[in-house]
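We treat protein structure as text, and this decision shapes the records that our systems exchange. The tokens are whole numbers drawn from a learned vocabulary of local backbone shapes. Below, we set out a record of this kind in full and without editing:
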Amino acid sequence: MPSPSAFPADSREPRIAPLDAPYPEEIERMLAKWMGPIRDRDPLRLFRTLSIHGELASRMGVFGAGLLGHPRVTPREREIVIQRITARCGAEYEWGVHAKVFGENVQLNEAQLAATAHGASDDPAWSERDRLLIRLADEIHEAADLSDSLWSKLIEHWSNEELIELVVMAGWYRVISALVNTIRPELESWATRFPVRPASQSE
């Protein structure tokens, strides 16, 4: 963890070049909307690459914005699941953007961010409640399902509505991870990098 790619590549060069400015007016508006709280930065390379398929991008944008902007779970719970699922997928691009933009704001400290990348579900960085979210992300990643034993614990803390959202969140960011792993956008210079794996966890 992070999971290695199933398809090691000779080069990690981008496979699809992102759009460059000046953008068509409708793309300009869409990118500005997507950047939200970080409009002072250039549009993300991921967003500029997705914009090549403008119709699909606009639909994905609505769904993604809904998950981030109108959650039933807390932003911190949301980010724990996102950070864990993107780390498990080895999607450093998406993990790093979320770590930088949201990590501190939702009070994920350095040890917890590192634990999303390298820690087990029982890592001491987490509370018992947090560990359930880590396990949820792990099981969705590994099995596209949740075990009965985990489900029985989850329902003690979250409503059915919240649990549906958490599962969809994990699945959505697994899709985004597959996308960035496949198109290989250049990492954003300002985003956080995966932490170095502790020597005690080296293979």
About this structure: The chain has two domains: 20-70, 72-201. The radius of gyration is 17 Å.
